[in-house]
Every structure is written in C-alpha cells, then in structure tokens.
Amino acid sequence: DRRGYVLEANIPISVAEDTSDEEKVTFLKWKEENEIVRCCMIAAMSYDLQCQHEQMTDSRAILLHLQELYGEKSRTARYHLSKDVFSTKMQEGASVNDHCVKMISCIEQLASLGFIQDA
C-alpha cells in the first residue's frame, strides 16, 4: 500500500550529477520500491504473463500493459469488432475488394486484442 506511488508516477530515468543528496536518496528509494513492486507483480502472474513481462523494469509499464490486455476498453473493443465481423454484409453493387479489406482489417484488430475464435 505504501509503495503504490511507484505505479502512479513515471519512472525517473536517472539523476544528474549536480542534484542534491536528498534527491539522489529519493531516486534510489524509488528504484528499490519499484523493484519490490515489480517482483510482487511478476510473482502473482501466470507463467505466460511472467515471460512477457520479465524484461520490463518499470512496474508502471507492466501495469499499463496489463490494462491494455485485460482492461475494460479492450473488452469493449473486442465486442464491437466481433459484432462488426459477424453482422457485416456486403452491400448490393459494392466492391468485393473493399468488403474483404474491411473484414480482414477487423479480424486483424481482433487478433491483436487476443480474440480467439473456436473452429
């Protein structure tokens, strides 16, 4: 709980040599706490997710990536895209090429969001 601040702020890249000792201590403390939070996050993941995130050094970046994968927005996007794929019909006299390009685009977007369709 007291380490949650590392998930809310961007990681400082480094500390300049002319910074005060207090700022250097703050930076080092932030790095330590970030590593603790990162390790806890990775330990709580499935093996597949661990493999995806083990090279990430910023706990906030891991959180943002997980939100992209599993957040409400991606679920809603998958729903709307799958609805488009299954309900889209080619209009009379429309170009077959344009229709196919639209369908392929929707299917590729679904794949990028992790949508898996059973055969």
From TrEMBL:
Output the lineage of the source organism: Eukaryota, Viridiplantae, Streptophyta, Embryophyta, Tracheophyta
Which superkingdom, per the lineage? Answer: Eukaryota
Give the Pfam families listed for this entry: Retrotran_gag_2
Q: Mind telling me what this protein is named?
A: UBN2_2 domain-containing protein
